[in-house]
Amino acid sequence: MERRRSVYLDHAATTPVRPEVARAMLPYFSERFGNPSSLYALAREAKGAVEEVRDRVAAAIGASPEEVFFTAGGTEADNWAIKGVAAANRRKGDHIVTSAIEHHAVLHPCRALEKQGYRVTYLPVDEFGRVEPERVEEAITDKTILVSVMAANNEVGTIQPVAAIAKIARDRGVPFHTDAVQAIGAFPVDVERMGADLLALSAHKFGGPKGVGALYIRRGTRVGTFMDGGAQERGRRAGTENVPGIVGMGKAIEIAVAEMPQKSVWLAATRDKLIRGILDSIPDTRLNGHPTERLPNNVNVAFRYVEGESILLMLDALGIAASTGSACTSASLEPSHVLTACGLPPEHAHGSLRLTLGSRNTGEDVDYVLEVLPQVIGRLREISPLGGGM
Ligand SMILES: *Cc1c(COP(=O)(O)O)cnc(C)c1O
């Protein structure tokens, strides 16, 4: 099988910067290069651009501009939310409630806090990767200082009932954080309707540049300072602003939100075509994640008798970029924490494949995948030590 095309199906990992976004960023590197904190026209121009994006991001998520803080990406926003709330509420309590399927940007800060003496409850999920709101209710104690549940999962695509979870947290007086990195541009994100007190987003997941994101902090939420230094971000996240990156994020969120209604319909139809096509043409295959409450661009399937990384290598040779939740780089052959938490049957656990669509994908891309994937899985099963050889 020779390389025929180039099909990028890993938009949950990152997305290409849109041409309009790159164009918007360009002047802020070498012409409008001023430091927003300085006191002359060139600086005011940069400052103005940054504040315009703050307004735009706020409008996109139903917040006020003073509640939006720029960060160096989604990981930083999650770290700030979790460690910041923990530090500011230490005297009040030491308990955090989160889920077992969070991104490492949430799980690892929680683990770091556990080493400092905080206690963390990692809520289980059902077979579709959903957190049941009643579980949150049961987990909250009078020492709970934060509930953090992601809006949508990056691996299996499951959308969480965050509004119901947030309501429970609020009724108990506990702030609610949501990692909405995968949600922006996929479905409407509104901090009021979601009931979020903190919300993380990342530009490179919706057509913006890497290394820039934002944390929404509801007015009145007790959160510590993230970075000490200058007075940027109202003294709470010091450091000269990534002006070109912020400008790019502003353009990207504007386009992502405007395109969402149409794009999400096309994506969901294409996603379902892919899922049906794969399940119909390849035996011993199952869908991971929720059948309907899932991101419009997410396909995640598990093939019995094959190994995820072998699938990726063969797809790569065919020009297809995809991802797996079953890495065998560790000797343990452990599937990802997300698939494990969903209780994926062991016979399927090693052969998962994630395909995440984007606006540049075409119907031909899908046809190509549906043409080559059955051959790839068939060949791997022929030589598989896991059984299933024919
Ligand atoms: C990508 C991602 C992050 C991390 O964002 P970065 O900007 O890459 O640091 C966090 N959470 C989720 C759900 C993600 O998909």
Q: What's the quick description here?
A:
This protein has 390 residues and is α/β, with parallel strands linked by helices. The protein has helices at 19-25, 27-30, 41-61, 74-88, 104-115, 133-139, 162-171, 191-194, 243-281, 308-317, 337-341, 346-349, 363-382; strands spanning 7-8, 68-71, 95-99, 119-123, 144-148, 176-179, 198-202, 213-217, 285-287, 298-303, 320-321, 352-356. 41% of the residues lie in helices and 13% in strands.
Task: Give structural notes.
The protein has 390 residues and is an alpha/beta fold. It has two domains: 132 residues, Aspartate Aminotransferase, domain 1 (Alpha-Beta Complex), CATH 3.90.1150.10; 237 residues, Type I PLP-dependent aspartate aminotransferase-like (Major domain) (Aspartate Aminotransferase, domain 2). The protein has 13 helices and twelve strands. It has a seven-stranded mixed sheet with strand order 2-8-7-6-5-3-4, sandwiched between helices. Strands 9-10-12 form a three-stranded antiparallel sheet. Strand 5, helix 7 and strand 6 form a beta-alpha-beta unit. Helix 3 packs parallel to helix 9 and helix 6 runs parallel beside helix 7. The longest helix has 39 residues. The chain is globular. The structure holds pyridoxal-5'-phosphate (PLP). Pyridoxal-5'-phosphate binds next to helix 4. Its EC number is 2.8.1.7. GO terms for molecular function: cysteine desulfurase activity. Belongs to the class-V pyridoxal-phosphate-dependent aminotransferase family. NifS/IscS subfamily.
